[in-house]
Amino acid sequence: MTDAAHLRRRTRELLAGHPPASTGRLDFLRARFDAGLAWVHYPEGLGGLGAPRSLQAVVDAELAAAGAPANDPRRIGIGLGMAAPTLLRHGTDEQRRRHLRPLWTGEEVWCQLFSEPGAGSDLAALATRARREGDTWVVDGQKVWTSSAHLARWAILIARTDPDVPKHQGITYFVCDMTDPGVEVRPLRQITGEAEFNEVFLTGVRIPDSRRVGEVGDGWRVARTTLMNERVSIGGMRLPREGGMIGNVARTWRERPELRTHDLHQRLLGLWVESEVARLTAERLRQQLAAGQPGPEGSGMKLAFARLNQEISGLEVELLGEEGLVYDDWSMRRPELVDFTGREAGYRYLRSKGNSIEGGTSEILLNIVAERVLGLPVEPRTDKDVAWKDLAR
């Protein structure tokens, strides 16, 4: 039985055999994965020990105290939060063995080829096609709002394999090699001036059937696993008190008394309380995850994350006055990660506008919460039983 004492012992054995001060970062991360201490709730041989998910904190605390290197989850969040749990649940043994280790160590970055210009909020209406030719699928189409595509080696991809059935039934899920011929990545410049997002064009991309995840036509069910984990990874991140966006505003309030007004004080108090409620709710959600797969509650957390980020960043700009309008650099850049807390207020204000779009639009998530959490009547849908090829577009 794996318990906290066992995990502490294994962690100390890892540290003794691979001292962080004298072991290269990548070598240490590989050794940690092989010791089953990457994500302890994963099976043995895949970076875990089949232990309760809640015990991961025991390992993390020991490693942090020893100054051990981390795998930079902000840079590889799509792989960690979306690709890995999907492959664990639906992938083949060979897919798990091939991808999970370099995914976790950060040797291979992942992106998500889901959204399309004509199928953003209605993802199941996607038009990217995959035709089978023997043991290979030939993919043609366009994806958009693809974070990290310019850095990624691999992508999780959903494409239409049967246009003659209703839209949710004719989708298949694949792993796409971003270095393959026919994959073109173009930057999408955002309101921040940067291009962390991309549009991806797929022209005759050949994907072996061995990279199909799940059964043919069952891609929507597989994609739901990805989407539920995505919303939890965005809205349910672990934060200390006053972590995240609220910490910046609270720090400015304490350090700059000349900026204070009664109205701003009342708004800050309200947002501070809401942020703390959201933080504690996210912790409860993570504890629920320890007992099984994420549910629709993650959609509620992602909704709260988006709204709070936008309101807090707006308050910060107002608090700083003219200083809040200053923006350091509008030159075109292609960043490796999104840094909400390490940049200036103007960046946070602009970048947070995307929070209500990425990871599922707030409007769609409101429907999910209404129907699957609150049990309200399902919104009427006239296209559920219509073949995709017969839908108006």
Mean pLDDT: 91
Q: Could you give the distance between the termini?
A: 56 Å
Give the overall shape, derived from the CA principal axes: globular
Radius of gyration: 22 Å
Number of helices: 11
Q: What structural class results from the helix and strand content?
A: alpha+beta
How are the strands of the biggest sheet laid out side by side? 1-4-5-8
Give the percentage of residues in beta strands.
Answer: 5-15%
Model regions low in confidence, pLDDT < 50 over at least 5 residues: none
Helix proportion of residues, in percent?
Answer: 40-55%
- Write the H/E string, N to C: HHHHHEEEEEEEEHHHHHH
**DSSP E strands, number:** 8
For the largest beta-sheet, the strand count, sense and barrel status come to: 4 strands, mixed
Structure description:
The protein has 393 residues and is an alpha+beta fold. 41% of the residues lie in helices and 13% in strands. It contains 11 helices and 8 strands. The protein has helices at 4-17, 25-34, 56-65, 77-90, 93-105, 219-235, 245-255, 262-289, 297-320, 345-351, 362-373; strands spanning 110-113, 129-133, 136-143, 154-160, 171-177, 183-188, 197-208, 212-213. A 4-stranded mixed beta sheet has the order 1-4-5-8. Strands 2-3-7-6 form a 4-stranded antiparallel beta sheet, with no helix packed on it. Strand 2 and strand 3 (136-143) form a beta hairpin. Helix 4 (77-90) runs antiparallel to helix 6 (219-235), helix 7 packs parallel to helix 9 (297-320) and helix 9 runs antiparallel to helix 10. The longest helix is centred in the last third of the chain and has 28 residues, at 262-289. The N and C termini lie far apart (56 Å).
